Each structure stands twice: as C-alpha cells, then as structure tokens.
TrEMBL record:
This is NAD(P)/FAD-dependent oxidoreductase. NCBIfam families: aminoacetone oxidase family FAD-binding enzyme. InterPro entries: BaiN-like, BaiN-like_dom_sf, FAD/NAD-bd_sf, RsdA/BaiN/AoA(So)-like_dom, RsdA/BaiN/AoA(So)_Rossmann. Keywords: FAD, Flavoprotein. It comes from the Bacteria. It comes from Candidatus Allofournierella pullistercoris. The keyword Flavoprotein applies. Residues 189-348 form the RsdA/BaiN/AoA(So)-like insert domain.
Amino acid sequence: MAELLIVGAGAAGLMAAGAARQRGHKVTVLEHTAKAGQKLLITGKGRCNVTNNCDEDTFLRQVRTNPRFLYSALYAFPPYKTMELFEQLGVELKTERGRRVFPVSDRAEDIRQALFRYAEGSKILLEEGAKELLVQDGRVVGVRTTKDRTLYADAVLIATGGVSYQVTGSTGDGYQLAKQVGHRIVPTVPSLCSMVSSDPDCARMMGLSLKNVTLTLYRDKKAVFQEMGEMLFTHFGISGPLTLMASSYVKDMNKYKWKAVVDLKPALDEEQLYKRVTADFTELAAKSVQGALVKLLPSSMQPVMVQRWGVNPATQANQITREQRRTLVHLMKHWEIPLSRRGDLAHAVITSGGVDVKQVDPKTMQSKLCPGLFFAGEVLDLDAYTGGYNLQIAWSTAQAVAAHFDEC
C-alpha cells in the first residue's frame, strides 16, 4: 500500500482520492477551505455539467490548449467511463443539447456527494493547505502545511485548481508550490468569462436575462462563434451561458475588433418578423412606439430599443413607416454589442494558463523535474470550450495519477 497526499479537495482531487482508494492506497487530502468540492456546486449553473457524451476524437477538438497532451489520459478514462462511474455511484445521468451530461436531479450536490462516496476512507483535512513541498534527494516526499505540520507521503498530487472563482478556494496556491521545484507557469488569463463592453446600453439593461436568443461573435468581420441560448446584461457588459461560451473564442483583443451580435428573435426570419411587427403595430395603433413593443421585447429593453432605433418615443405606432419597421426588424435581428476586454479572472469559470505541460509526463501526470510530484485538473495549462469538457479534463488527469503514482 502506497500513500498519496493530495493538495486540493476539488473535482480533480476528490476523483484522484477515490481512484487511489479503489486501488487500495492510503490517501490524505488537504483542503485549505472549510468545505470540499465547493466549485462543483456552481458548475452548470448549480446543475453540474459532468462531462460531454462524445467520443475521444470529438472531445479533443474541443480542447483549446494543449489537446495533444491529453491524448493518453483521455483515452484511458474517456467520457463514457465517467458516466459509468457516476451511475455506479448512484447518480442517474441525462444527456442534453450539445451532448452535455447532467445528473437527472439537476443537483450539483449529488455529484459532490458521489465523489465523497468514491473517496470513502480518505482522510480529508479541512482548513489546512500546503505551503511548502518537502524535497529530499531531488524527490518530493511530503509537504509542510499551513498549520506548520509536516506530512510525509510516497507521492504528492497538486490539484488546487486555477485562480478563477476564488471564493470557492481556487487561489493559485498550486502555482507557487510548482514554482518551488522549478516548474514554469504559463501566465493565467480568464476563460469562459463575462465580457466587458463600452456600450452604455448594457448598463441601462443591467439584470435583464434574454432566453432563446442567438449570439454570434465576430472577430473583425468574421463570425467565429454562434449559439442559441441565454445571456445576461450587466453593469459592465454581458454575461450568462452564451457569453461564457463565446468568450473562449476571444483572443488578441488588442489586435482585432470584437463584437457580439444578438438575434432577439431567432425563430423568425426577417420577413416573418416584419409581418409580426406590422400586425402588432396595427393592433396597437394608438399607442406610442414603445408601448407597441410590449409583445415583442422585455420592458427594460423597450426604451433602449426605441433610442437605438432613432424614432421619437412619442410617435404613435400607426405613424411608423414601412422603412422604419424594416429598420426595427434589422435591429431586433442584429443587436450589436462592442466588446473591449474579458471580465475579471476572479469570476471566470475556467483559468487558461497554469503549469507548463511540457514539464509533465502526459501518461502519468508526474513532474519531469521532480519525481514524486503529480498534477491534475485546472492547475495544468489545459482548458476547453464549455460543455462538460473541462470537468472531464479533471476526471481524466486525476485517474491517470491514481493509475500510475505508485510506479514513480
């Protein structure tokens, strides 16, 4: 029986703990917060998008950073094995649009509890982190904790996550530990994040959530992303699921002009929408143009639309010309939002950057610089598009560690 010391009780840490326990190893997990698995509870809007129900090749095409590094780990523990594992742990799963996999209960807590069951027998020490790696003869043999205790083990796994959503415990501690033994850290930037816009209309509609709209992301004049779903206006720009998805396609914001174009009525083409607008304006002929938008737009968007439309708000609906109706239809099908930068890293769902994978064995996740040291999950310079891919990266890399750490 070998002993594994895991730093971080998040998705990767708990998965590695469970996989190591199933192999009969002794496991101790350090978690510097008061609650293990906190970030799991906010994934998938509290529903936990466990994985993506796709094959390995499809999966790797959705990995933004260092997909080739993941090849061995992903093929050893692909999405279907993740699904089998959680169902064996008592969590019934379902596959939704985009092959996204969720618990049938729509409760992230069910995934968290399943991981606790999987890791049963592990010693989880809460409110105690690792502040220093212990190295003897060029090999990691344990850690010094934040409570000034010395803990020894046959191997140490750093599974501390990135630096996004720091309230859940992802504070970048793992990067500092990795640096102690010479690992390079690729600079971290937010991925799957809100977007900042200079458009004052966003702040005017702060708090407005739009459902069943289509967002198209443009780099200069080229569309690089399009998806239908939900988005949110904020005091600084836009957020919500569609925005998070689109943000992972944004690069070189100083080099290109970026904008989001929202189709507020994707179920109708322009001609169908024109007929709908005409019918509404005929029915509400005596109302002001803003009042005539009551069936077409949310109340907080109506005055903003009228201002952008450039029509006097006091104009009656029956006074609007055909050309003005056409202009309105175009605005509703092409609501433009200029984008200036990403939202802050602390509130990003995923951190892009981290421990340079060139210095990590892709089969075992062991450090190439210091035997006995392993990495798993978001602490590595790996990230993917939204849709369950990032959690699967955590599961696959954690399983790779558990399968190989006693060979180190």
